[in-house]
Request: fold
Amino acid sequence: GAVVSQHPSWVICKSGTSVKIECRSLDFQATTMFWYRQFPKQSLMLMATSNEGSKATYEQGVEKDKFLINHASLTLSTLTVTSAHPEDSSFYICSARTHRAGPNQPQHFGDGTRLSIL
Amino acid sequence: AQTVTQSQPEMSVQEAETVTLSCTYDTSESNYYLFWYKQPPSRQMILVIRQEAYKQQNATENRFSVNFQKAAKSFSLKISDSQLGDTAMYFCAFTPFNKFYFGSGTKLNVKP
Reply:
């Protein structure tokens, strides 16, 4: 159980393009979803936290207008990188969590999306 | 402020031997949860083990066990009978609220 599907796994696109990444919890309801960015050989950097039905909470230094997050349902959150540029190239990972079974529930991660902007 | 420190950037261990990865954290909260995740070369984050701060008993999951010292704010991971498939980045994480705080990671190389 507790499977999180992230799509696409790899995307290459031209500078100026907007890219949408989907994160789905397949067998549980995710009250909270998280979006991380990971640079090579570094830890996960939290970008934003989204709770179903409310606006995402962004971490300091993360541009809200650049990284649009939507958490429209208990099983789906999307991250849209708008007008992507080469410096946005990175590995993006989503995770999902539910509090319905208690506050000690771990985060369940998607497989990540490798984004390359040419 | 909530911080997590993993002081060992990289470690090596021979197959079948035991290795311990260290993790310390800082928080003023009294109730929280601790986790170890592994990230193999495939880059998928996999939950290894979890510990609840209010439980004194150390968590174990097969070959993986933790040494949780709440007063010292220490949460180390012991891997027994290391296997080649254990080669990965290991991240310590703790959550006092809904947000997770991750350490910088320890790269573990299991040598044949």
